[in-house]
């Protein structure tokens, strides 16, 4: 048979020095070498590039590699040139070249020197390049990052949609499409768009058994959590992903001042700096890179030991691809994500200006991320199910490698509820997404349900005996168990599978675990359901009650409410860090030097006595130093409120939303610095209104804005109450 005629091992040894192939590489390369259309789905780190590099070196002519990333092309060209005496063996053809360089590329192709030509899809839209390539011997086309073709992918590039047309113009040559992440829907779209319905398809497993997955609640102290995590892994390589450039810079600086060697990487840095930072990370001159997703696409560093998501990504594809940068050498890889539903809401706001279809898709992808973060089932099983792969959570490779399976939650029998759920999906004609199914079960009418007359049906409200969270969790678990399926093409419409219809006819046992519940308590995200998670530091409840009692005494003595002395989050932080000097107290959340000097003496005496009596080892890694950046902003705010500058102008000058500025002012005042904003309050509230709110805060047991909103029942808005709380704390506590 033809297969026996092609020797792949001699060229593999000759060009790359390897004796054997990895995973599916041999089958893929044989398919390409035999001139067949080939489609490869292979996770990051699986050795995708060899699948087109080796056949290109073996075959006559030039292989054209389409890639969306200039940095990635450069890395690969350098690598191929390293295995040959002739630098012309591989070239890049993109907008970064001048005329002389383009002429050199063309002459090397004409003379048969170039085996691999890397191009950006945009370059292929130029007629001069297409006309030139038409006349050359092209061995095959390789489309890297092929998911960019699909609108359903996480990284859609419109220029990828025209590739089939351009390839046809250049000539009838075989195509190999490669992607590291693709849901079944995206795979179908790639094959259809590239016109390769008869392609040999190779799909490697998406399971990376050496990666440990954990999701933690994102608290105000998330930077301290990150520093604590890294300090336990000093000297190891890691990547931290953030959604904004500003956050990247901020965290990189904070890590640096806390003795961690870290550098920022984002598209706002000039190319030279980016390349320098990337090289320093690769050469191990720096341990941690803090980056936006602009980083890492072409990074092949095998020993990245942890990947941290400071912000949850926009899709599970992005999450999978980014976590996939850890442990490529099959060694330890820890993937830690911080989750707060507020981040999801922020991402939804960003989508508001996009076309409706894009918004719907974006929401559908975000809901998958929410499901992953909040689920209490095996995270690996959830993730692999998303990519169309089944996983045995008991015996599969890497079965106990996530926080949920390490600290399992209690399971309850849900046979009856599963039957109810499946029947409601079936009887409402399989036309709803998860949120509308839950609304139907809870008996809460909305415009969508009314338009289909669902509130008139006898099953409307049949699930009131459970709450929203319960039904959302059950939908996720029945999807993964295969009783329901999601039509992504219809933005997440849920349908019953044949297995689900069998269950309705003959219900069997279904053990369900409840989701994690992330609640917001005055901005402090706390995880309730995951209290058993050993990774979460717990507060000292005994010390907490002593501190609360002292706070009450001090408040009485000074004639102010206890919360005006120190807020609860500050007391909680004291029970974690045990400060025994005024300097240490100044590093506690929400306590500055001013506050420490005014109220601190009795508190540090009490803590010192408690530490001595109970033989407590104080954690030495808990004090997180802050960068000068924040203090610069604080100084600006203090100086300009002194000058009585309108708050809107201060916010605008610093590129802040009003809400962000108020938060900054709160942190200044709660840390013990006096600020006078009377000039601003006098413009928005009259004397009687100010007095009414002031008296409320003087008598209230808590300074929570939600309590104040309830008390005043809509008379004042959130901002007015927050500004009055600032005035109150500034005057009575500072």
Could you give a short description of this structure?
This protein has 734 residues and is an alpha/beta fold. It has 33 helices and 19 strands.
Fourth-tier CATH superfamily name of the largest domain: P-loop containing nucleotide triphosphate hydrolases
The strands making up the biggest β-sheet line up spatially as: 3-4-2-5-6-1-7
* Distance between the first and last residues' Cα: 87 Å
- Level-2 CATH architecture of the largest domain: 3-Layer(aba) Sandwich
Overall average residue pLDDT: 84
Tell me the Rg in angstroms.
Answer: 30 Å
Name the features.
Rossmann fold; single chain; globular; 734 residues; Arc Repressor Mutant, subunit A
Give an overview in words.
The protein folds into five domains: 202 residues, P-loop containing nucleotide triphosphate hydrolases (Rossmann fold, 3-Layer(aba) Sandwich), CATH 3.40.50; 144 residues, P-loop containing nucleotide triphosphate hydrolases (Rossmann fold, 3-Layer(aba) Sandwich); 103 residues, Arc Repressor Mutant, subunit A (Orthogonal Bundle); 73 residues, DNA polymerase, domain 1 (Orthogonal Bundle); 106 residues, ATP-dependent DNA helicase RecQ (Arc Repressor Mutant, subunit A, Orthogonal Bundle), CATH 1.10.10. The protein is of the alpha/beta class. The chain is built from 33 helices and 19 strands. About 2% of the residues have low confidence.
Provide the fold topology.
Layout: H1 2-5, H2 9-16, H3 25-33, E1 38-41, H4 50-58, E2 62-66, H5 70-81, E3 90-93, H6 99-110, E4 116-119, H7 127-134, E5 138-143, H8 163-170, E6 175-179, H9 184-193, E7 200-203, E8 211-217, H10 222-231, E9 237-241, H11 245-257, E10 262-265, H12 271-282, E11 288-291, E12 304-309, H13 316-323, E13 333-339, H14 341-350, H15 356-374, H16 379-386, H17 403-406, E14 411-413, H18 415-427, H19 434-442, H20 447-451, H21 468-481, E15 484-487, E16 493-496, H22 498-505, E17 511-513, E18 518-521, E19 524-527, H23 541-558, H24 568-577, H25 582-585, H26 593-613, H27 628-642, H28 647-653, H29 658-670, H30 678-684, H31 687-699, H32 705-712, H33 718-733
Parallel strand pairs: 1-6, 1-7, 2-4, 2-5, 3-4, 5-6, 8-13, 9-11, 9-12, 10-11, 12-13
Antiparallel strand pairs: 14-17, 15-16, 18-19
Helix pairs in contact: 3-4, 14-15, 19-21, 23-24, 23-26, 29-33, 31-33
